[in-house]
């Protein structure tokens, strides 16, 4: 292959002394010394979580503390990494909630599998599962990282409800168009 | 229009495509042959036509003829015979084909009709899909997606009906979900012949219910759950157990009786949740018994045998097989008897026969199980595979109906039989007829799925698999060979039946030739005992099965030639798709226990 000799431009005096570059670097440094902080003292200072953030999936109750999940298993079906496992069960007669008919006997989310995609929240027809603000999760054993129903409700708490679907259903059953 | 050569066929034109179908076919069935789907709820091919859901509305027309001369009227624009379209839609289920009939299923009128019918059906339908067991296999759900409006215009209050009526021991009814198709009523009346269901009240207050003082308690009640197009009738057993879209479907055969009902086993991750019938128009149509559906419970029954045992102590499968081999070797020739089973698959019965041959022609008895047939899908013979034992040559004549093992018992009492191999039978059961004292006199090697008095008394217990955990074939009362497939894995530590039998055969052969101490388990290598491998020898040695392999048996079975056995007095009476070949002419009951010709067990 032919070799092309390239003629280099000789360095100027300013370039050879490096002084202008040093000055420019000092300027950048000085600017950041007096500008406000962008980092955060993390464990002491907690970040502000933006709306729509997808944290740890949780089960929520309605404002009266009642279970919302009816174990339709759609989240289990849609979950891409198959992290959710539900054991469905019937609501016993005489519990005052028998008109809902179905509730999860057990509800497990394997947080080692969860990818925080939020599809479970999106698919839930009862608005019972939400990815809320918690983002930091750790444990010492694998079992600890599988959240059971009790833990999921602890993490979830109560959220406002716009529908009270099952209360309406019960009211209709008592006062509705029966024959 | 070209008339087909066969006068029993009628040519119709559906959406511009011509098809010849038999006379009396309705439009839904004719369209199905062209893969054109006409949505419907109340129509069911095995029930009478009610025509009350109005979902199958289609547009129909007939070729125009001059009323006076009967000459075809030709449309000048196209040069073809003009079609007089009926200005209003007609129902597809109640319209039988006639020559030259034209059908349109995709026109705006049909689309409007479907949308309107769907809207009316959904007026009072609750939004229960998240808690409804039918979700995923619900016709209303599917057709609301396919033909529904997509939004609701209904702002009034929905009707309220009873949500959890218990109709019978197996069926729970949610009346709000009912779309009043009346399939269940027609099924009870026409198929189950137990007319217990009906509608009360009128209009949108119509409610499905049982007649006063009656309940839906017949042995076919769960078929109403299958044919219910919505989630109104639900199985109390399957209710809220699992969503259907998680379940894996495996084709199987019901072992309840010799009818050989074709079934689908629905399982998830090795657990069976339900059994439903599979359509086979030659055997069970689309029905099955409730009692047959509950048989899956045997898989997880607490008395299930899960490990091999030698003299009551749990042992490894290898140790148990070694102990069995030693027992066989120690027994003198002619003192071993085998009790085969009409519940074993064809392959197992064939291997049982090979075992008898390897033991120098040990006598084989079979336990007969005769109950009462119901004339439909529960036959008198409760052995699912008695005819398989005849076809494979395990037995030559039928076992006695009561105390099938009486002859074996006599041989035990006479001291002629010292070792008994029982293949999946409880020898002290009423129909078998051995006593506990007789069992105590012999060394017993038993194969079985569940603990029984026999397994408690046995020297060697080898656990086996249930029908849901293995593959094989059964021969039903019509001499139809039908195959079933493995739906779930067997319990840990339970070997395949064919492998266990092969190991016993190897042990018997080793004992017969020389007292070599090779382990029988090793002799029966895994490759030689799967169902396909057994079929290779089976097809070669059983002439009746020579033309087929396990793979080539179709899903709806193959009819074998039953004429060689026509003279045998089978227990079955007339039933759905079955007529007994010999009614009364062979009155002579079989005598003595079943035995292979060479060495009769009877003293």
TrEMBL record, chain A:
Residues annotated as binding [4Fe-4S] cluster 2: 79, 114, 117, 120
Keywords, ordered alphabetically: 4Fe-4S, Cell membrane, Iron, Iron-sulfur, Membrane, Metal-binding, NAD, Quinone, Repeat, Translocase, Ubiquinone
EC numbers for this chain: 7.1.1.-
Topological type in the membrane: Peripheral membrane protein
PROSITE patterns given in the database record: 4FE4S_FER_1 (PS00198), 4FE4S_FER_2 (PS51379)
UniProt cofactor note: Binds 2 [4Fe-4S] clusters per subunit.
Record's protein name: NADH-quinone oxidoreductase subunit I
GO CC annotation terms, alphabetical: plasma membrane
Subunit structure of this chain's protein: NDH-1 is composed of 14 different subunits. Subunits NuoA, H, J, K, L, M, N constitute the membrane sector of the complex.
Coiled coil residues, start to end: none
Family designation: Belongs to the complex I 23 kDa subunit family.
Source species: Cephaloticoccus primus
Main location per the UniProt record: membrane
Function: NDH-1 shuttles electrons from NADH, via FMN and iron-sulfur (Fe-S) centers, to quinones in the respiratory chain. The immediate electron acceptor for the enzyme in this species is believed to be ubiquinone. Couples the redox reaction to proton translocation (for every two electrons transferred, four hydrogen ions are translocated across the cytoplasmic membrane), and thus conserves the redox energy in a proton gradient.
Cofactor(s) named in the record: [4Fe-4S] cluster
From TrEMBL, chain B:
Domain 4Fe-4S Mo/W bis-MGD-type: 247-303
Needed co-factor(s): [4Fe-4S] cluster; [2Fe-2S] cluster
MF annotations from Gene Ontology: 2 iron, 2 sulfur cluster binding; 4 iron, 4 sulfur cluster binding; metal ion binding; NADH dehydrogenase (ubiquinone) activity; oxidoreductase activity; quinone binding
Family: Belongs to the complex I 75 kDa subunit family.
Keyword ATP-binding: no
Start and end residues of each 4Fe-4S His(Cys)3-ligated-type domain: 109-148
InterPro entries xref list: 2Fe-2S_ferredoxin-like_sf (IPR036010), 2Fe-2S_ferredoxin-type (IPR001041), Mopterin_OxRdtase (IPR006656), Mopterin_OxRdtase_4Fe-4S_dom (IPR006963), NADH_UbQ_OxRdtase_75kDa_su_CS (IPR000283), NADH_UbQ_OxRdtase_ferredoxin (IPR054351), NADH_UbQ_OxRdtase_Gsu_4Fe4S-bd (IPR019574), Prok_molybdopt-oxidoreductase (IPR050123)
Cellular localisation: Membrane
Keywords: 2Fe-2S, 4Fe-4S, Iron, Iron-sulfur, Membrane, Metal-binding, NAD, Translocase
SMART domains: NADH-G_4Fe-4S_3
Name this protein carries in UniProt: Ferredoxin
GO cellular component, one term: membrane
The organism of origin for this protein: Cephaloticoccus primus
Boundaries of every 2Fe-2S ferredoxin-type domain copy: 8-109
GO BP annotations listed: ATP synthesis coupled electron transport
Entry keyword Metal-binding: yes
Entry-linked PANTHER family: NADH-UBIQUINONE OXIDOREDUCTASE 75 KDA SUBUNIT, MITOCHONDRIAL, RESPIRATORY NITRATE REDUCTASE
